[in-house]
Known about the structure:
The protein has a domain at 89-176. The protein has helices at residues 21-28, 91-104, 108-121, 151-162, 169-175, 203-207, and strands at 6-9, 51-53, 74-76, 86-90. By secondary structure, the protein is α+β, with helices and mostly antiparallel strands. The protein has a two-stranded antiparallel ribbon. Strands 2-3 form a two-stranded antiparallel ribbon. Helix content is 27%, strand content 7%. Helix 2 runs antiparallel to helix 3 (108-121) and helix 2 packs antiparallel against helix 4 (151-162).
Amino acid sequence: xxxxxxxxxxxxxxxxxxxxxxxxxxxxxxxxxxxxxxxxxxxxxxxxxxxxxxxxxxxxxxxxxxxxxxxxxxxxxxxxxxxxxxxxxxxxxxxxxxxxxxxxxxxxxxxxxxxxxxxxxxxxxxxxxxxxxxxxxxxxxxxxxxxxxxxxxxxxxxxxxxxxxxxxxxxxxxxxxxxxxxxxxxxxxxxxxxxxxxxxxxxxxxxxxxxxxxxxxxx
Length: 219
């Protein structure tokens, strides 16, 4: 798959049914913010994670704060209109999948080459690891470690930023048994049980699979 390949879900402002709900919640409304997330810190100025600081009077935002009226709002600009398509498959993700396979095989050099091939596509400079494959350590506020240069932490961070707002992060967390699953919040500290990693098969998929159709879960 070429690195510049993209196959996307198409959205349109023609009707409410065709409008992107990602745009609606993160741009049209101030429900979700990049503030104090990896995109809002490490991702500042990164072409993969564009956002506007709405607290700046010149930003053009309808409000400087989020939906609570108090928290600073960093409005995502990856999908600035309700017509913006959302990638389902990208060549850049394929490079990151190849990097992950290389790390799993103990090949740090190939993993970094794949990561840097992806970064070059976005006009970003190459990264250098600290020479270790390491393991995923996570960040203090949830998500990827913002500074570690081990192979796995670099991959965690680069997937987080490259696939931002594309619906991939949850599955990365569970596939890697990510430290963020063990309680805590993304922005605010919270005490919660470990997040569940066993999820039911979607009802529509379950019903068409004769081997499990008698076990389908529904509310």
